[in-house]
Amino acid sequence: MFRSRPTLVRSTNALGLLLAFIALPGLTCADKASARGNGDAFFNPPVIHEILVEIPAAALAKLRSENRTYVTCNVTVDGRFTLTNTGVHLKGHATFRGLDDRPSLTLNFSKFTDNQTLMGIRKLHLNNSLEDPTYLSEHLAGGLYAAADMPASRVTFARLNLNGRDLGLYTTIEGLSKEFLRRYFTDIHGNLYDGGFCQDLTEKKQKLLGENPENQSDLTELVQAAREPDLPRRWERLNALLDVDKFCSYLAMEVLTGNWDGYTFNLNNYRLFHHQASGKFVFIPHGMDDMFKQTRNPLRPEPMKGLVARGFLETPEGRERYLARVGSLFTNQFRLAPLLARVDALDAIVKAARPKADASTEFRQRITLHHQLLQKHFASAPPMVAAMPKGPAAALQLSGWAPEKDSGSPALDEPQYDGRPTLHISASDKPCVASWRTTVALPAGRHRFTGQARTASVDPQTGDPGTGAGLRISGGKRVNQLTATKDWTALEYDFEVKEATDVIFVAELRAKKGEVWFDPATLKLMRQ
């Protein structure tokens, strides 16, 4: 019925523990499976386990009509352990399949039998991997989150037999339970929430652990903190309610793994634990079967749907910490050669069960492309402006100016004029639109862009977004303008940033003829 599985190689301690409780006389198989352990012997190293699930007829009938409701079943693992009176239900949203197809299952060994576990594991998810034909995404992404010191489920593989039907290979994932929390938290008391399907924290959640399911006032408090309009006060409130170090890592890994279907980008596939001892929330990733597909600018997670992610990154402190963390994790964890080597090692296990499968080639390409995109954006990332005091005395001099030609044949260079360096644009007697540009990551707020410029014989082009020579930001319209011949003149441009984002500053010329010189020493940004 089952193919022979690869030899299970374990550490000496784990193997000794396993042999010890198998040999104990007088214990039932369920007792043996409940012996002390943390599940490591089941997950490490990853192998293809053989799991037989037998659902009695009456329970099967109930599961057909109420597929999300736990019913009883018996489970045999690797021909060694039989756990009776185990809870089982169907799972999945986009990957949901009925009982007569290849359903994904959740097994809860202690649902109907107190403290029954499989080698220390209380809950397992058996995923049909319909969105991941490689069977590798969950394993690789989960390992990256764990390496970043984030709570993450362990992953291995199984060949599933359901009531005599061989359903083939499944991705086998550790479920969130008290045992899971004990591996990451000194105190497991607190509320554990299921984020729901594409829902933010403003929606009522299923409380997986914790008392009084109707009382979700702690979530309400976090939502209110993320919406606090005063940014210094918002940071203070978030810092009191959110483990900001772990949230930085969580955001960074959402970006590094291209998790388009997680909380940050799609309000999906997350759990949230309110650690009672610290009083702080920790986000936990879930459902990582379709990773490394983020094609927009992967470094700066915008636009974002997640309220807490937006609120966090709109604060100067949160944005600064995030950018530092994503850079550190990219350098130390998201290294291409070890990642691809891990893919090869895991793929060798998968092909033992699916020898004709060749989906890993495309998966390797996705990871490689994503890594290249990250490298590109790290190399060209604009500087980030943290909190600035208001007023001219705290103005920031802008740097990193680069030329850009939109139309015509303008000349852009950096000559000396009046003994000072300049950014020069000449229309060369032909109509042109050209500019000098630089990018800065700004927090929300009102700002002023200032600088000095002089012109010679500028015959302006009129219309949006401006006339002649002047200053603005990309996407903005300006009133300031210099035409004809003018000596050094002060220019200013006021604008508002609704939420933290990258802002492109533009020193431009829109003219039929003439030239302009901008003084880069005077091109500054100040907070209003």
Radius of gyration: 29 Å
Estimated share of beta-strand residues: 25-35%
- The percentage helix is 25-40%
Q: End-to-end distance, in Å?
A: 73 Å
Largest sheet: 9 strands, antiparallel
Outline type: elongated
Supply the number of structural domains.
3
What is the residue-averaged pLDDT?
Answer: 86
Low-confidence stretches: 1-36
Q: Structural class, judged by helices and strands? A: alpha+beta
Query: How many DSSP E strands?
Result: 22
Number of helices: 14
What's a quick, concise take on this entry?
The chain has helices at 12-23, 29-33, 40-43, 57-65, 137-147, 178-182, 217-226, 231-241, 244-256, 263-266, 307-314, 316-332, 336-353, 360-380; strands at residues 48-54, 71-77, 81-91, 104-108, 123-127, 155-162, 165-174, 190-194, 206-209, 270-275, 280-285, 396-397, 402-407, 411-413, 416-417, 420-421, 423-426, 432-442, 445-460, 468-473, 484-497, 501-527. It has 528 residues and is an alpha+beta fold. The protein has three domains: 1-184, no CATH class; 191-334, no CATH class; 392-527, Sandwich (Jelly Rolls), CATH 2.60.120.
